[in-house]
Structure formats: C-alpha cells, structure tokens
Write a structure and sequence with these properties.
single chain, 338 residues, alpha/beta, Rossmann fold, 13 helices, elongated
C-alpha cells in the first residue's frame, strides 16, 4: 500500500487539506467533531506524516544530533538523559554519535548530522580537536549549535558549562584546609579548556594559600582513566616523592590512585588524601569512598536543550541570536578519602 498523504485523507473525508493538517495538529479553530473524525480515519489507514515533506514546508526536521567524546562515561550519560528527556517533551528525535575523543571522527560525525538536516547539534569537543573549522561550518550552515562541558573560547556559539577553575579551586582548598601542603595534580590533556581551567584552579588555590607551585607534582592523564591514576601514584611512591594529597582531573584517575595506595598499604587520608572530580557513581561505592566535585550532568543537558529552543525561536522571529555562556553550579562532596 502506498504512503498516504494529507491530500488522500482530505479527499476521502471531503474536506480541505488545510483542515486535515490543522486537525492532526490539534489547532483550536477546528471543531472537536472534525478533529475526532480526521484522527480516527488517520489511525484506521495507519497514516504516517511524511517528515521530508514537512521539512520542505517548515524547514524543520524535528531532529537534533548529539556528539559526545565517550559513550562509557557516567557524566556524559547523565547529560544525554537531560537532553533526550527535553527532546521527547518537544517531540524531537535525537541522533547520538560518539567522537571517541578523535578530531577526525568528530568532523565526520558533525558532517553526517548536517547531511541529515538536523535542526540543532549538541557538542562536547573531543580532547584531540585542534582545529575548529568544522565547528564553524555548523554556524555557517545556520544550524543551531550548543556546546556543553568541553568547549573552546574560540567557538562562536552558546555553551552550557561549569566554572571548572572555581570548582578545582574549591577542591584543592578543601585539601589545604585538611592540612595538606604537598598536593599533586593528575591533570587532563593539555588542549581541552576544562582541563586547562582545572589546572589553573589547582595552581591558584596553592598560591593564594601560600603554597609554592611545584611543576614536578603535575602528571598528565591523556586518556583520563584509572590505569593512568594508578601508574602516576605508583611513580610517586617509587620515587618517594613528598606528597600528602592528590587532586585528579576526574574520578577515574582518582580511583586508580586509591587502588594503588591500598595495595601499597598507604593510609587514606591520613598519609595521602585523594580528591576526584565529576561524582561518578563509582566514587560513592569504592572503599574508602571518594571525595569529589559533583557536576549536575542531567541539569546541564536540560539547560542545553532549553538554550536550543530559545535560539530556535529567536531565529523564527527574525531577531539576532545573542550567544551566551551558561554556568551550572557545582558542589563539593566530602567522603572518606579526605
């Protein structure tokens, strides 16, 4: 059976195509009786609106794309939940793609979404992204773009982020208030802005509390995983470095550090305290439980979608879009590791 059109329904019911369209969309200027008649017939013949025809008519596909750096990441899954929940409320379908922290794959995924004529793209920039031309291309295509979590100061779009520098400062200051003075930092890669800001917050907290910054106490986690945290912690112990606390760029390296300390029979937090970042589920389940900074991922996702809707509506009114950076508050969660 061929796909039915609005015109087919209109002909069968002897009413106009406009009336059929308005009835299916529940317009108030169509009588309840006509709406019921149209909807009953549409259900009877299993009518499915032609999304491509709708796109040609409205220039809206009612689809959005999300590109995240990692799939197996508790924080990003929380953001996805927030975006998808809001998308469902507004009848948007979502495409979820992963860049796997790759610049080349990120470019490919964005182009795939643009080829699908999505109405908006939500992006957390990959760690290895060094050129933003493909991101600028989204704006050039007049596709709505909202960046969340990992962003660049050079991207001309709205973003939903946390104040990474402030949050890192809070985390390190917490360790200092616990009497720790030789605090090592397991930082992220050199490029992403959030990695840079967390490092700057770490350094600022030391210096403003009269503790000299020591570059030898900074270790890079390229993959930001537990193995790197374990290896860096073992290096500190093997070299008998004077360290009494660890501040990690994320929870996984902190978990690796705790595993290493336990295996080496180092008392946590008496000898070495450990502070994470993000508040993954695992941070409350390990022993000792991990102190961390809570990032409200689901709230960030919901906010990102609201920003998309606001900018979409602004464009519909032919008004200029003013890009903004929206900062979501974080919370320090103190557990046994400090």
């Amino acid at each position: 059976m061929k796909n039915l059109t609005l015109r087919d329904i209109a002909s069968a019911l002897n009413i106009s195509v406009t009336t059929v369209s308005k009835a299916l969309k529940n317009y108030p200027d169509v009588s309840v009786k006509t709406k019921e008649r149209v909807k009953a017939y549409a259900e009877k013949v299993n009518f499915t609106p032609n999304s491509f025809a709708a796109y040609l008519r409205t220039h809206e596909s009612k689809t959005v794309g999300i590109v995240i750096p990692r799939l197996n990441h508790f924080f990003f899954s929380s953001i996805l939940r927030g975006i998808i929940t809001e998308a469902e409320k507004h009848e948007y379908m979502t495409f979820i793609l992963c860049s796997d922290e790759s610049y080349e794959l990120e470019k490919t995924q964005i182009q795939r979404l643009l080829n699908k004529n999505v109405d908006g793209i939500f992006l957390s920039i990959a760690d290895k992204t060094h050129d933003l031309t493909h991101i600028q291309n989204i704006m050039d295509k007049d596709t709505n773009l909202v960046i969340f979590d990992k962003y660049s100061k050079l991207t001309p779009c709205s973003s939903v982020v946390i104040d990474d520098r402030k949050a890192a400062y809070t985390a390190v200051e917490h360790l200092i208030k616990k009497g720790k003075k030789r605090i090592a930092h397991f930082r992220g890669p050199l490029l992403p802005q959030n990695s840079i800001d967390r490092f700057l917050g770490y350094r600022q907290a030391l210096e403003e509390n009269g503790i000299e910054y020591d570059k030898d106490l900074v270790f890079i986690c390229d993959e930001i995983n537990d193995s790197e945290g374990y290896d860096h912690m073992q290096q500190i112990l093997d070299q008998k470095m004077d360290v009494d606390a660890i501040f990690a760029v994320a929870d996984l390296p902190a978990v690796g550090a705790i595993k290493c300390l336990i295996e080496n029979k180092v008392q946590i937090p008496e000898e070495i305290a450990v502070m994470g970042f993000s508040n993954w589920l695992i941070s409350s389940l390990i022993t000792p439980s991990l102190s961390t900074i809570d990032q409200p991922g689901e709230l960030m996702g919901r906010k990102a979608f609201q920003v998309f809707l606001d900018e979409r509506d602004t464009k519909k009114r032919n008004e200029p879009v003013v890009f903004q950076k929206y900062e979501i508050e974080t919370t320090l969660i103190e557990r046994k590791s400090t």
